[in-house]
Amino acid sequence: MSAEKNLAPGSEREERLKKLEALKAAGINPYPAKSQRNYSIAQIFSDMEKLEANQTKVIIAGRLREVRGHGNLTFAHLEDASGRIQLAFSQKELGHESYKRLVKLIDSGDFLETAGTIFVTHSGEKSLMVSDWKVLSKAIAPIPNAWYGLKDEDERYRHRYLDILLNPEIKDIFYKKAKFWEVTRDFMKRHGFLEVETPTLETTTGGAEANPFRTHHDDFDLDVFLRISVGELWQKRLMAAGFEKVFEIGRVYRNEGSSPDHLQEFTNMEFYWAYANYEMGMKLTQELYQEIALKVFGRTKFSTKGTEYDLAGDWPKLDYRETVLEKTGIDILKASEEEIKSKLDELQVKYEGNNRERLMDTLWKYCRKSMAGPVFLVNHPKLVSPLSKAKPENPELTERFQIIIAGSEVGNGFSELNDPIDQRQRFELQQKLIDRGDKEAMMPDWEFVEMLEHGMPPTCGFGFGERLFAFMVDKPVRETTLFPLMRPKREEMEKKDSPLKKNK
For 79-98, b where at least 16 C-beta lie within 10 A, e where not — what string? Predict the structure, then answer.
């Protein structure tokens, strides 16, 4: 049975609509605004002995599941966010009319409020003997079968609420994800960082190299962009304003390809720390990742895509240039663009763009695939690090670090460039890349350069996103998103051209 068949209008839906009308005809509001619930299911289990001994009347509410009738006795399960409990509906306890109405008009999937007393069955199952019940929400569409329904990935994401309902392990992922960001926020605040909010609409996109989403501000008659970083250039302005430790957790948007491990909208965290450098940043982020691992998952050992790694202890450092040279024979500081292209062709690695920056980045991404981690990648070339401070001993390299786990980057930080002359020159180079058609090159922000001319203290900046969480639960990042963006199913919507697309 397909998910589409389960979800489509049909005879069962028609029968439920008849039951809905019957409830209304009996003077019952099938969608009341209020419930008298005074216990959660978890609270009942916690106070079970006391409630049973005293025959305390409790009122619980939730979704009805697995209804099964046995003449004058009907059993079902009730689920709320805290757990599941068995319900026993007896004609003797409810009375003939109430029991008859229940049997005829109530279905699995309905939300009910039930009042009664606690007891334990002969098989040891904790149960509620129902003395009164009330409809809270009549479900017109049936819940798909847990075994047959919603196996198709596309349908699971389109009906995520049902996917979560049918798969408790998926619900658990999102409880853990909330804890993941909670631990992150608590860690930053405990270390003296102030949580801030920066703009999500920008006239220039800074802080990362990515293709942005464009929209139009009607009142200003101005094209603006959805941010591609969590306010990097804004948070650095706060360093100039006199703040010394700030962070933000927020959504970012990148108009890039879709895959199980790539999203166009996701959550990142970035912090900026005055009078600190990238070495101090490495120490702090290692502590952060280890605290997340222990407080959210209770362990430091993980497996992602078949790669096992341990976040405990001190993480080693790998040199960018030396690593690429060892794995490919290419010295990225000396090799020509044609030499890098030739090596990528030899390795059968696809690449986009012909500029040195993109080619160098593609070659490195090939090299990192075999790394289990965790490791700190250091000594990045200046060309791929337009916002990072150059190393005094070798100006071709930068004080930057990336955290590599399971062959992917899951964190990026550096000693922030605060030299306005150097920053202007690097922005000019990025502008040349844009003029040559590089959609991912960083847009220059000349007002940011002006801020640097007023002075910004030495600063360490760092950012990471929900990819780390996806790695920790060993799921595609799309699976760890509550409602991933989906293409509309309706043919007319798929064919409809966006006005923005037409005006590009």
Answer: bbebebbbbbbebebbeeeb
Angle 461-462-467 from CA coordinates, rounded to 5°: 165
Question: Distance (Å, rounded) from C-alpha 65 to C-alpha 51?
Answer: 24
Whether the Cβ atoms of residue 85 and residue 114 lie closer than 8 Å to each other: no
Q: CA-to-CA distance for 59 and 270, rounded, in angstroms?
A: 45
Which pLDDT score, from 0 to 100, does residue 4 have? 40
Whether residue 55 is found in the same domain as residue 202: no
Q: Sign of the CA dihedral 144, 148, 152, 153? A: positive
162: which 2 tokens?
């049902």
- Residues 254, 211 contacting (CB under 8 angstroms): yes
Alpha-carbon span 285 to 405, nearest angstrom: 14
3-state per-residue secondary structure call for 465-482: ECHHHHHHCCCCCCCCCC
Q: How many helical (H) and strand (E) elements, i.e. helices and strands, does the chain have?
A: 19, 20
User: Is the peptide bond prior to 374 cis by the omega test (within 30 degrees of 0)?
Assistant: yes
- Residue 208's contacts (CB-CB under 8 Å, 6 or more residues apart) are 228, 229, 232, 252, 254, 442
Length of the chain: 504
**Cβ–Cβ under 8 Å, residues 273 and 219:** no
Q: Residue for token digits 């798929």?
A: 494
The one-letter amino acid code at 172 reads D
Q: Is 419 domain-assigned?
A: yes
Q: Which residues of the chain have pLDDT under 70?
A: 1-10, 146-150, 353, 490-504
Confidence (pLDDT) at 493:
52
3-state SS class at 107: coil
Residue 108 domain boundaries:
31-137
CATH code where residue 228 lies: 3.30.930.10
- Supply the pLDDT for residue 249: 98
Q: Which pair of tokens denotes residue 194?
A: 């102030």
Task: Identify whether 444 is part of a domain.
Answer: yes
pLDDT digits (tens, 9 = 90+) for 93-135: 999 999 999 999 999 999 999 999 999 999 999 999 999 999 9
Per-residue pLDDT at 242: 97
Q: Is the pTM of this model over 0.90?
A: no
Distance between CA atoms of 310 and 301, rounded to whole angstroms? 4
Same domain, residue pair 287 and 180:
yes
Candidates 173, 186, 52, 166; CA nearest to 108 is: 166
Specify if 462 maps to a domain.
yes
What contacts 24+ positions apart, CB below 8 Å, involve 216-221?
216/500
Using alpha carbons, select from 323, 327, 363 the residue that is nearest to residue 344: 363
The tokens for 61 are 């509410």
Question: What is the model's pLDDT at position 274?
Answer: 98
| 3 state DSSP class of 113 | strand
